[in-house]
Amino acid sequence: MALDPQARHVLDQLAAAGMAPLHALSVAEARAFMESMRALHGPATPVPVVRDLEIGGGDGPIPARFYRPREGGVLPLLVYFHGGGWVIGSLDTHDDVCRDAAAAAGCAILSVDYRLAPEHRFPAAAEDCFAATAWAGANAARLGVDPARIAVGGDSAGGNLAAVTALIARDRGGPALRFQLLVYPVTCGRMDTPSYRDNAEGYLLTRDAMAWFWDHYVPRAADREQPYAAPLRATDLRGLPPAFVLTAEYDPLRDEGEAYAKRLAAAGVPTTLRRYDGQIHGFFTMGALIDRARAAAAETASALSTALA
């Protein structure tokens, strides 16, 4: 399918603004750029409970933000990990995404501010995300959530961390997870798929940018073969929670996300794979300018609500 005209408009706007390639920016500049992209989401849905908190982690406290779409009652929970290549992104860049999801899916959300690279390299982010998920299960009563209805999810690098958290939870004996929501996830560090070749340049996320992210987070090539860095490298995917995997046609990560979905299904994991044709990486958070972003948000919220019912 041709590139969505609204996605093309976003790319043209960024080009007109003189945006430098991400891989040419400093870490501080890239983080500032990510913060500025929040405006592309559009107005968020109000939710009555939003509070910041700290989670006890093995390597120190982990900041988080907790959302509830209503005051009382016991709710299911999504533990959410923001995107940004393990280097950029924050609770604030994905605040609107979490507000919308809480309201649309009717679940509580715990958004995790995991440690970023290069200050904290692999496996710091993965361990933080697992620690936050385990903490949520252990503190379900305090949060007013059902420990039997906990999901993990995220976009891009956050999708990677959600998949990895599901693997770690299985391998370490819990917490039991009901669902994993993976939005154009990073699943492999080899960068050798046809979608990397076909979408290497011109669609916001580039091959050079992904190399920049991997070099900051997992600089050792051998570590990129470890399942907790690249879940597609896991030899056994049995026993993982059901998954919804969303990919975008004009995304270097498309093929590895779809390969992971197919391997999950082959391992007996109930899996829904949904490709958004005509879309670019990052479109999911661009609802102010891309109509299909709002459709994707509604579809993922529906899948989450059904899985956690």
Across the major sheet, the strand order is: 1-2-4-3-5-6-7-8
Domain module tally: 1
| Rg | 18 Å
* Order of H and E elements: HHEEEHEHHEHEHHEHEH
Q: How much helicity do the residues have?
A: 25-40%
Query: What is the CATH domain class?
Result: Alpha Beta
Low-confidence stretches: none
CATH topology: Rossmann fold
- Strand elements, count: 8
Structural class: alpha/beta
CA-to-CA gap between the ends?
A: 35 Å
What's the CATH superfamily, by name? Answer: Alpha/Beta hydrolase fold, catalytic domain
Give the SSE layout.
Elements: H1 5-16, H2 27-36, E1 49-55, E2 62-68, E3 75-81, H3 95-105, E4 108-112, H4 124-138, H5 140-143, E5 145-155, H6 157-171, E6 179-183, H7 194-198, H8 207-217, E7 243-250, H9 254-266, E8 271-280, H10 291-307
Parallel strand pairs: 3-4, 3-5, 5-6, 6-7, 7-8
Antiparallel strand pairs: 1-2, 2-4
Helix pairs in contact: 3-10, 4-6
